[in-house]
Amino acid sequence: MRSLLTALALVAACVTVPVLPATATEPAADPTLALTPPMGFNNWNTTGCDINEQMIRDMADIFVSKGLKEAGYQYVNVDDCWADLTRDPATGRLRNHPVRFPSGMKALGDYIHARGLKFGIYTSAGTQTCAKTMPGALDHEEIDAQTFADWGVDYLKYDNCNNQGRPALERYTKMRDALKKTGRPIVYSICEWGQNKPWEWGKGVGHLWRTTGDINDTWSKTVEIIKLNAPLDAYAGPGHWNDPDMLEVGNGRQTTTEYRSHFALWSIMAAPLLIGADLRKVSQEHFDVLRNKEIIAINQDRLGVQGKVIHQKDGHWVFVKPLANGDKAVALFNESEVNATISTTARDLGLPRSTGYTVRDLWQHKNFQSAGQISAALPPHGTAIFRVKASRDWYRHEPAIDAQLDIAPRHAGIPSTITPAGEPFVATVTATNQAPIPVLNAATTFRAPAGWQVEQLSSERAPVLLTSQSVQGKWKVTPPAGVTPGEHLLNGSLGVTWAGHGKLTRPVDAGVLVPVAPPSGGELWASDVQFAKERSGYGPVERDRSNGGYVGGDGKTLTINGKTYEKGLGAHANAELILYLGGRCTTFSSDVGIDDERDVNQLGSAIFEVWADGTKVADSGLRTWKDDAVHISGSLKGARFLRLVVNDSGDGVRFDRGDYAAAKLTC
Question: Which of 59, 371, 435, 548 would staple 554 via disulfide (CB 3.0–4.6 Å)?
Answer without folding.
Answer: 548
